[in-house]
Amino acid sequence: MDHSQSSGNDLDGVNQVHNQRIVVPASLISPADDYGKKENYSWFATSQIPTDLSIQLQDVTFQVHKFPLVSRCGYIAQVEMQNSNSNLEKCLKLDNFPGGSETFEIILKFCYGLPLVLNPINVAALRCASEFLQMTEEFEDGNLISKTEAFLTFVVLSSWKDSVTVLKSCETLSPWAENVQIVRRCCDSIAWKVYKESSKPGEIIDEESWWFDDVTTLRIDHFMRIMTAIKAKLLKPEIIGSCIMQYAGKWLSDTDTEAEGCRRYSYSKNEVQINILSSKRQEVSLGHSKEQRMIVESLITILPAQEEVVPCKFLLWMLKVALAHSASPALISDLEKRVGMVLENADVNDLLLPSYTIGDQGKTLNTPDECTMHNIDVVQRIMQYSLMHEQQQHHPLAGKFNLGKLLDGYLAEIARDPNLSITKFQVLAEALPETTRTCDDGLYRAIDLYLKTHPSLSEHDRQRLCEVMDCEKLSLDACMHAARNDRLPLRTIVQVLFSEQVKMRKAMGKEQTASSDNSDQHDTWTSTKEITTLKAELEKVKMEVQGLQKDYGELQRECEKKTDKCRTSLGWTLGRMKIKSPSFLKGKIQGDETIGGQKRFSFGIHKISLRRRFSVS
Fold first, then answer.
1. What is the DSSP letter of 610?
2. Are residues 140 and 189 in the same domain?
3. CB atoms within 10 A of CB 99
4. CA dist 102 → 173, 370, 576 (Å)
């Protein structure tokens, strides 16, 4: 290139400076005779002319000639012009140089006239470095910017594999790769190829997931760019959801393993021991937590809005990760609403969200003394969102019965938590309307487990807890178990006994009707035998109740000695015994016992010869 004919005034000035300082022709120093690294991580260009410029980049010092670099690099030309009047030894330090010393070495050889080899691995770094050094066509035709741009346009962007390779190489080139539009062009190219291949008629999701493995290896910001471009092209939301699930499984840590390292609970018969385990291995580093938080927040924002594009199990797992890494409250709320939309498909184990969160310092914020084992507040909000969603549908509460079973199962799990207050349990049990339960057996089981885990509850608290249960919705088996359950308060046992008698009468009525209409002699004999057994049992119950009637006066006098609160509660219950046929009571009062500092009465249920059921606890 003839520098004397250059149109740039600044460039002419630079050439004049060099003409004054370098008295030998440029052809004698370009190319150099030899290149290479020596001791102390230095790089030398050997020629007949001594080097006159030192360039410091990271831990490597490059001893080079000024002219080959000034003739191609606008940045070095400007620096040289600014320092032309200095008599000090020339030493240029390049900070934040994209691609590092390896990329600069390739550029040096290009400036000295050696052949340039471009490939998908180095082209992004060379393109960014050439932008940094301002290697434009103003200095020489076919300069490095134009060469790398041509390779990106005609080679890289036409190939799926090369586009992914270049995009991965851009992860260490921020912000230069963004500024020169390499990231945008690669993401758009990948998204277009996905859309083109996935939009073919007759394709199914399994066949369309050929690109998942490559895309899910990318950094989260690049993955988001591709998924945003794909969504803009209206690709099937199920495909996008499947890809997001695969990415989350690859990049998000297993919070269950982390929870195991943070807490461990062991139960014995009468007490619960809570051990807090801590070690370096169990601590979550600050950097890791921030990275996980960024990933989960990004994936939440990119999830398709349509229902059931991802399973409820995955949404709850994402919610667990988001809570563990203190994700944005707004995004957590959005995820809770999405879970509520498909909650009828959930599993009880998936709802067991730990109550602790991992803070910015990488340690547990809450301890068992301060909170419950499980995040009950989140589950309560999810239940409310689910009810709101069902009410907005054309068939309100279509999945209400599934919700009732799900909630009762969840209550049975959290009932074992020694830190769970009776108020939290009661509020959650009443979170769903009564119509969501056709049977209260599951709720009774949860209450029984809570009473077993909290044996020191007062009679008042026991009664308060049992008020959330409707005894009339208990099955006959549950009634039989409850009638023998000494953990229940007296008032509840009375209600259960009455409900049990009603159910037995209904059962006998149905059996009599069925036997009269059934022509099968064997079935008739079986039904008659069962009715006879039930009648015998009922007669025994009536005999026991007669004994109870005799002691009624004495019991009433004992009630007057109780506190006003106990007298009000017990008096109301026993007031109902004045009916002529008090056959709803099965047991005979046998003295009194003291539990939790208060007197309570127990029935001699063991005298009744009804068939015993196995415990539902």
1. P
2. no
3. 24
4. 14, 55, 93
Peptide bond into 175 cis (omega under 30): yes
CA angle, 571 then 575 then 578, to 5°: 155
Q: How far is CA 210 from CA 232, 239, 472, in A?
A: 20, 11, 57
Residue 563 makes CB contacts below 8 A (sequence gap 6+) with none
Confidence bin at 126 (pLDDT 50/70/90): very high
Q: What would the pLDDT profile of 85-97 be if each residue is shown by its tens digit?
A: 554 456 788 889 9
Greater model confidence, 521 or 230: 230
pLDDT band per the 50, 70, 90 thresholds, residue 337: very high
Q: How many CB atoms lie within 10 A of CB 277?
A: 11
Strands 91-93 and 263-267: unpaired
What is the rounded CA–CA span in Å between residue 454 and residue 474?
A: 23
Q: How far apart are CA 180 and CA 185, in angstroms?
A: 10
Q: Nearest CA to 345 among 374, 378, 391, 314?
A: 314
Same domain, 10 and 72: yes
What does the pLDDT look like over 217-227, one tens digit per residue? 999 999 999 99
pLDDT single digits (tens) 237-285: 999 999 999 999 999 986 554 444 333 333 333 333 333 333 344 444 5
- Of 200, 218, 251, the last residue of a domain is 251
> What is the total count of domains within the chain?
2
Q: Which of 156, 184, 208 is the last residue of a domain?
A: 156
> What distance in Å separates the CA atoms of residue 542 and residue 110, rounded to the nearest whole number?
107
Q: How many helices (H) and strands (E) does the chain have?
A: 27, 9
Q: How much is the mean pLDDT over the chain? A: 75
Q: Do 16 and 139 fall into the same domain?
A: yes
Residues 307/312/314/316 CA torsion (nearest 10 deg): 120
Angle at 349 between CA 340 and CA 417, to 5 degrees: 105
Rounded to whole angstroms, the Cα distance separating 26 from 67 reads 7
- 3-state class (DSSP) for residue 511: helix
Could you tell me if residue 131 is inside a domain? yes
Host domain of residue 191:
176-251
The number of beta carbons lying within 10 Å of the beta carbon of residue 521 is 8
Do 187 and 96 belong to one domain?
no
Query: Helix, strand or coil for residue 609?
Result: coil
- Average pLDDT rounded to a whole number, residues 484-505: 84
Residue 134 and residue 226 in one domain: no
CATH of the domain at 50: 3.30.710.10
Q: Whose CA is closest to 384, among 424, 426, 337?
A: 337
Neighbouring residues of 503: CB distance < 8 A, sequence distance ≥ 6? 475, 476, 479
H-run or E-run covering 607? none
Long-range contacts of 419-426 (CB under 8 A, 24+ apart): 419/368, 419/369, 419/371, 419/372, 419/373, 420/372, 420/373, 420/376, 420/450, 422/450, 422/454, 422/457, 422/461, 422/464, 422/465, 424/372, 424/376, 425/450, 425/465, 426/464, 426/465, 426/467, 426/468
C-alpha span between 359 and 494 (Å, rounded)? 50
The whole-angstrom separation of Cα 253 and Cα 289 is 10
Cβ(507)–Cβ(476) under 8 Å?
yes
Strands of 154-269, DSSP E: 263-267
Q: What percent of the chain has pLDDT over 70?
A: 63
| Position 445 pLDDT exceeds 90 | yes
400, 435 contact by CB (below 8 A): yes
